[in-house]
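Hey, I'm writing a tutorial for new members on how sequence and structure tokens pair up, and I'd like a real worked example in the thread rather than a made-up one. If someone can provide the structure for the chain below, I'll link this post from the tutorial.
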Amino acid sequence: MPSTRFRIVSRPARALSLLFGIALLAAASGANAEPATKVPAGPADLVNALNDVFGKYPGQRSAHTKGICLTGTFTPAADAPKLSKAPHFGKTVPITARFSLGGGNLKAPDNGQDNVRGFAIRFDLGDGASTDLVTISAPVFFVQTPEQFVELLKTVGSGDQDKIKAFFESHPASTRQKAWLTSHGFTFTNAAGGATLAKYKLIPEAGELGLTREEAEAKGPDFYAEELKERLANGPVVFDLTAIIGKEGDQTTDPTLRWDGEDDRPTAPLGKISVEAIAPDATCNAFSFLPGNVVDGIAGPANDPIFQIRSPAYIVSFTRRLTP
């Protein structure tokens, strides 16, 4: 069924890591890079490293460059306010969303099964206010710090397979990705002041059925938009948004680590995300989906260096999109 296949192809096949997806895309770009630096990395350094590996595309994002802009609605679950007083957990709101491919290659193939996918959502809270949810098809991030991120991209960009292998071996967390989740833990606070640590998870309502490698190859490198258009002609694409409930002692500083027994943790329904139409690219290009764009009732991890630098880096990329 086209709808199911579209959704699950956004999971990395055979649990291949995001690292190898980036490596393959970078190899296709033919870019070169300088040796890794030990200087503390800032937001612009991350964007520069992405551009050095994948090239620059005027007016386009530096990361998750290829994607499809979408619109729809979010309807909260009845019990969502028990976890968080965030306004979108108390009422139905419009959303703007974007499916994307990992890396910075504008021509990344849709049917590549060795690349991470992104699903970012902006909730329109009214009166110009918004909050964002940024997810990838992996339960963890692939490096612990901004410096490791820059080092990785420069290593991949060098094309030196020995260096790439050495990086993977020295950063084993880079090969743990395997599912649709946020890699960061968030603290939800309800109206009574009760706090709950949680991670987000998006589950396709139609189930997690996927494409075989042969089926993916047969579809070609640019099938997403047309297949999604056909699917939406028959009705919305719906995802269940759930919270994986944390417990005392769960760490929130290292996005490369999963919580103990995470797959078996209790979950709580947060609502349904209904993707209803494809929107012009200009709709999504008018802003950036920011992991740190949270509202009262939701707090990101204060001591997670990757979480703290992602939004500033996306803002750098957005600024450059405006003045390519």
